[in-house]
């Protein structure tokens, strides 16, 4: 389960619309509760490092950017709890590509952007054995 | 020594919830092994089924990516921090690191026609290649040195893969003895220029690519200019002078050198790219003494071997263009076709390398024939005036035999060569046994020594003289090949 404020959800959707028809991506900063629940306190939009032609269906956060985000998070006493990206003209369901490149524990928030307008937004977490993603509940606002 | 490993949040639950773990290790690889032996669940998230680090897992020692240092062998000092850094939705990671400069923006990549899309569909449906990769292939240019055993599969696969511009350098013509392995040429091509035969075959495989033929021997005079025009150079040559020339010219022009070599049943392959790792001279600073390593013409080669090694070169070339996977940089692949075994050696860039080291002394191309010791006087002239090696031509020998002269002929080839072709009334003593069996040769009679082409027999004569043989020894000039040409065409040439 992940809790994100309505404001952050709107901003993530807006980022997806801005980048359309390309994919957007970013990191979610917050904290893990003892029960594994994640709480998002901030989000960091990241420039999509994929080359132009691949941006419509691939997003990438470079390790350098991750390392920078990690250092920034520490100064704020936060942790990286997940990331988000958009699926232009596609459902908000993780692809095989997403699964193959996924990290455990983290939330994978996906926003579907259709014809430039954010439609549905869902969050997923990879099962421990790397076999699939399970949808997780988004708790809005706190 | 004690070092600290930092664990990304995503993996902490597999590391007992800790964000930092101290381990004892001398290298980055040891540190990861030590970590995953303590926390076994981490392993499947860091390593794939082949036990390689997953391509979206990056490992930094302090601030440096170990991919830019010595990989798993990157040494650690006490107090170093090993950071596991995720690249998210990666796959493109290695791409960005290894990709050739030519393909930095995809906007400049050529587009694919509908025909090309249909042709390359098996590439396009793999995300590792995809549209972008196929367009990179189309934008790429590769120069192949040689269209022989290695160049044949190499050229055919690169053409089939859609490498947009393929240069081929060769000066030779197709000979019947090439067809056992040089599958780019056919029986109808015997006597034609290899580059023309190869061009016809390659454009038949793929009419969408451009093939540029260079009917010339690669030399110190033309290499830099030729290389300048291509992204990647692939070395399919069979001799040391050209191999050093290709290496040095690649270092001087900053191009990757996709290397392959073959002999009998054994092959080698690597990617020498001085910008990112070892070059050929880091591995072999000096050539072997002339004659120590025989050529394929002397030692033979299993026909399928260059097929395998050339295909590995094609594979590495394509990966360099795509910018993905693990290239053979700093790795020397050894293949034994007889035992069917692959082995791998790690290579290191040599800081003292004369061409790519910290203080290079070779700043322009040199005379590689001389460097490889091939400009020495021919064997026959190495003898001082009094003991100059005597030679006889095949037709003169034939006249002697016909006139009934008392001459014995010693064949120093191997028994399997003797089975292929022989000169009548000869005694077979292979070169390796000549000294031990010297007593079988009667020093009171004149002796003509022969082999396939005249080189081994000259060596046999030297060895016998050193061993104290007192009789008269005469070398058959041009060996049994000359015998077939001048005396008896029914003796097959091989």
What does it look like?
The complex is a heterodimer of chains A (142) and B (494). Chain A has helices at 6-19, 63-75, 96-100; strands at residues 2-4, 25-32, 38-46, 79-88, 107-114, 117-126, 133-136, 138-140. Chain A is of the alpha/beta class and 142 residues long. Chain A is globular. By secondary structure, chain B is of the alpha/beta class. Chain B has an eight-stranded mixed β-sheet with strand order 8-7-6-9-10-11-12-13, with helices on both faces. In chain B, strand 3 and strand 4 (64-65) form a beta hairpin. In chain B, helix 7 runs parallel beside helix 8. Chain B is globular, with a radius of gyration of 28 Å.
Keywords:
heterodimer, A: 142 residues, alpha/beta, Cytidine Deaminase, domain 2, eight-stranded mixed β-sheet, 3 helices, 8 strands, 23% helix, globular, B: 494 residues, Ubiquitin-like (UB roll), Rossmann fold, Oxidized Rhodanese, domain 1, 3 domains, five-stranded mixed β-sheet, 18 strands, 30% helix, 18% strand
List the helices and strands and how they pair.
The complex is a heterodimer of chains A (142) and B (494).
Chain A lengths: L1 E3 L1 H14 L5 E8 L5 E9 L16 H13 L3 E10 L7 H5 L6 E8 L2 E10 L6 E4 L1 E3 L2
Parallel strand pairs in A: 1-3, 1-8, 4-5
Antiparallel strand pairs in A: 2-3, 2-4, 5-6, 6-7
Chain B lengths: L1 E5 L13 E5 L3 H11 L4 H4 L10 E5 L2 E2 L15 E6 L6 H6 L15 H6 L1 H4 L5 H10 L1 E5 L5 H11 L3 E6 L23 H12 L4 E6 L7 H6 L3 E4 L4 H14 L3 E7 L2 E7 L7 H4 L12 H4 L4 H19 L8 E6 L4 E6 L21 H4 L18 E3 L1 H9 L4 E5 L3 H6 L5 E3 L17 E5 L4 H12 L6 E4 L2 H8 L8
Parallel strand pairs in B: 1-5, 6-7, 6-9, 7-8, 9-10, 14-18, 15-16, 15-17, 17-18
Antiparallel strand pairs in B: 1-2, 3-4, 3-5, 10-11, 11-12, 12-13
């Amino acid at each position: 389960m992940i809790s994100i404020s309505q404001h952050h959800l709107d901003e993530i959707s807006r980022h997806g619309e801005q980048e359309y028809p390309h994919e957007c991506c970013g990191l979610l900063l917050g904290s893990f509760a003892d029960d594994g629940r994640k709480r998002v306190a901030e989000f960091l939009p990241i420039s999509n490092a994929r080359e132009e032609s691949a941006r419509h269906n691939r997003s990438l956060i470079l390790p350098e950017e991750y390392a920078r985000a990690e250092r920034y998070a520490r100064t704020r006493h936060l942790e990286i709890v997940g990331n988000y990206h958009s699926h232009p003209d596609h459902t908000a369901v993780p692809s095989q590509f997403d699964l193959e490149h996924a990290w455990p524990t983290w939330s994978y928030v996906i926003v579907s952007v259709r014809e430039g307008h954010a439609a549905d937004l869902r969050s997923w977490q990879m099962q421990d054995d790397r076999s699939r993603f399970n949808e997780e509940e988004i708790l809005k606002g706190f | 020594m004690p070092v600290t490993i930092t664990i990304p949040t995503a993996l902490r639950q597999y590391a007992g919830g800790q964000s930092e773990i101290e381990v004892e290790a001398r290298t980055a690889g040891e540190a990861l092994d030590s970590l995953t032996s303590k926390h076994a669940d981490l392993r499947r998230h860091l390593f794939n089924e082949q036990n390689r680090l997953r391509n979206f897992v990056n490992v930094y020692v302090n601030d440096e990516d170990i991919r830019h240092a010595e990989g798993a062998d990157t040494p650690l000092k006490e107090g170093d921090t090993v950071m596991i850094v995720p690249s998210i939705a990666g796959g493109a990671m290695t791409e960005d690191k290894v990709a050739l400069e030519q393909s930095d923006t995809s906007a400049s990549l050529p587009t694919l026609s509908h025909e090309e899309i249909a042709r390359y569909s098996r590439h396009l449906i793999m995300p590792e290649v995809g549209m972008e990769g196929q367009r990179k292939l189309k934008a790429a240019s590769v120069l192949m040195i040689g269209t022989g055993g290695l160049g044949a599969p190499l050229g055919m696969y690169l053409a089939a893969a859609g490498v947009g511009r393929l240069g081929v350098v060769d000066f030779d013509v197709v000979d019947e003895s090439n067809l056992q392995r040089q599958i780019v040429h056919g029986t109808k091509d015997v006597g034609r220029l290899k580059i023309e035969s190869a061009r016809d075959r390659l454009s038949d495989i793929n009419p969408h690519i451009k093939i540029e033929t260079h009917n010339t021997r690669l030399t110190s005079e033309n290499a830099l200019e030729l290389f300048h025009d291509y992204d990647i150079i692939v070395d399919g040559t069979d001799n040391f002078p050209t191999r050093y020339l290709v290496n040095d010219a690649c270092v001087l022009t900053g191009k990757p050198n996709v290397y392959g070599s073959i002999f009998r049943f054994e092959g080698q392959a690597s990617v020498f790219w001085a910008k990112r790792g070892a070059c050929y001279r880091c591995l072999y600073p000096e050539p072997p003494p002339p004659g120590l390593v025989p050529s394929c013409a002397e030692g033979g080669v299993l026909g399928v071997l260059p097929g395998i090694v050339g295909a590995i070169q094609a594979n590495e070339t394509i990966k360099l263009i795509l910018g993905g996977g693990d290239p053979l940089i700093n790795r020397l692949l050894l293949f034994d076709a007889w035992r069917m075994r692959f082995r791998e050696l790690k290579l290191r860039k040599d800081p003292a390398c004369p061409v790519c080291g910290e203080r290079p002394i070779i700043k322009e191309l040199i005379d590689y024939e001389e460097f490889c010791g091939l400009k020495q006087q021919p064997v026959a002239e190495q003898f001082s005036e009094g003991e100059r090696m005597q030679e006889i031509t095949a037709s003169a020998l034939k006249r002697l035999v016909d006139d009934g002269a008392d001459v014995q002929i010693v064949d120093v080839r191997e028994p399997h060569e003797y089975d292929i072709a022989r000169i009548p009334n000869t005694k077979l003593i292979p070169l390796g046994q000549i000294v031990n069996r010297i007593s079988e040769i009667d020093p009171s009679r004149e002796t003509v020594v022969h082999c396939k082409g005249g080189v081994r027999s000259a060596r046999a004569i030297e060895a016998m003289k050193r061993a104290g043989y007192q009789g008269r020894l005469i070398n058959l000039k041009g060996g049994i090949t000359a015998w077939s040409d001048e005396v008896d065409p029914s003796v097959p040439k091989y």
